[in-house]
Amino acid sequence: MNKGDLISFKPEYSGHDDWSNPAIVLYQFHPESHPEMWVVWCEGDMCVIDEENYDVAHLTSSLQESA
After folding, report:
1. 3-class SS at 30?
2. Which of 15, 24, 25, 41 shows a CA-CA span of 20 to 30 A to 62?
3. Is residue 56 packed enough to be buried (19+ CB in 10 Å), middle (13-18) or exposed (0-12)?
4. 67 domain residue, yes or no
5. How many domains is the chain built from?
6. 25 to each of 6, 16, 21, 33, 60, how far by Cα in Å?
7. Is residue 1 part of a domain?
8. Structural domain range at position 16
9. CATH code where residue 40 lies
10. What confidence tens digit (pLDDT) does each residue in 5-63 have?
């Protein structure tokens, strides 16, 4: 994940239809000690997710070229 990515996430062992609403990646939580943890903005709240316990679907990428 990168800052600015638009994602959807769900806990790894939840149901197939339990994806979050779109969320924007804001920043890494503690890059030095926990590089897998990210702060995202979803439904008006800041949430902390990690790439080890959540499935993440990239809806757009901050690295996409503009058309």
Report:
1. strand
2. 15
3. buried
4. no
5. 1
6. 6, 22, 13, 18, 11
7. no
8. 6-60
9. 2.30.30
10. 999 999 999 988 899 999 999 999 988 888 899 999 999 999 999 999 999 999 987 66
